[in-house]
Amino acid sequence: MTPVLVSHPLCPYVQRAAIVLAEKGVPYERRDIDLAAKPDWFLAVSPLGKTPVLLAGGAALFESAVICEYLDETHAPRLHPSDALLRAQQRSWMEFGSALLNLIGGFYNAADERALAAKAAEIHARFGQVEAALGEGPYFMGEQFGMVDAVFGPVFRYFDVFDTIAEFGMLAGLPRSAAWRAALAARPSVRQAAPANYPDLLRAFLLKRGAALSVRMVR
Ligand SMILES: N[C@@H](CCC(=O)N[C@@H](CS)C(=O)NCC(=O)O)C(=O)O
Questions:
Q1: How high is the pLDDT of residue 194?
Q2: Which part of the chain is the GST C-terminal domain (predicted)?
């Protein structure tokens, strides 16, 4: 049976799974739900009430990292390295990517300009750490696209919309991070992971926050 990815169009965690599915050429059905009015069938398969959920093999898998790992173990090509230590390092950086998503949430929910600038500076500092971990590229591990790339594609997708609002300098002076962002933006799996109207949907979502960033958008 075709796997079903239970999704929300703006969810960066869903995008991770969509990227991994695309990298492996696995056909799947994407089923979007309204997270503001979660249907009963969704609550029955998502114990935490969150997207993504992957319905596959008669099971419902939740938590994006778990879904990605399952897909990596069951479908070629492997995105993780075969060496256990290198694989563990990739997982560490996947966690780092999740921490960045939390910071991004703090950024777009910041109540005032001061908090907004502080969050932008924090994100910039985190990317300073990423910069130090990056090699020659084009991807996180080098020539081969991997799981950390699937995690950071959706992170950079936020920046594409933030950049239309103002220059927040999140990657200022970080050439390797900037080059990595460009490489991920060009990757077909990353491009198709969100709907074509994602920028409009994200802008509408950000406007509704009533946060400092929303105020910037209507200035
Ligand atoms: N740790 C989870 C996070 C998933 C998550 O936060 N999903 C959000 C949408 S992007 C969600 O479903 N939120 C709904 C809610 O918390 O009620 C994962 O990696 O899958």
A1: 98
A2: 83-205
Q: Is domain 4-74 classified as CATH 2.30.40.10?
A: no
Residue 131 in contact with ligand 1 by CB distance below 6 A: no
- Predicted confidence (pLDDT) per residue in 87-115, tens digit: 999 999 999 999 999 999 999 999 999 99
pLDDT at residue 16 greater than cutoff 90: yes
- Phi, psi at 176, each rounded to 5°: -70, -40
pLDDT digits (tens, 9 = 90+) for 44-88: 999 999 999 999 999 999 999 999 999 999 999 999 999 999 999
Domain edges within the chain: 4-74, 84-218
Residue 63 Cβ inside 6 Å of ligand 1? The answer reads yes
In sequence order, what E strands does the chain have? Answer: 4-7, 29-32, 53-56, 59-62
Dist. CA 23–CA 21, nearest whole Å: 6
CATH topology of domain 84-218: Glutathione S-transferase Yfyf (Class Pi); Chain A, domain 2 (1.20.1050)
Whether the CB-CB separation of 191 and 185 falls below 8 Å is answered with yes
18 lines ligand 1 (CB under 6 A): no
- 7, 13, 101: which to mutate for ligand 1, most atoms within 8 A of CB? 13
Query: DSSP letter at 78?
Result: P
What pLDDT digit, counting tens, does each position of 169-210 carry? Answer: 999 999 999 999 999 999 999 999 999 999 999 999 999 999
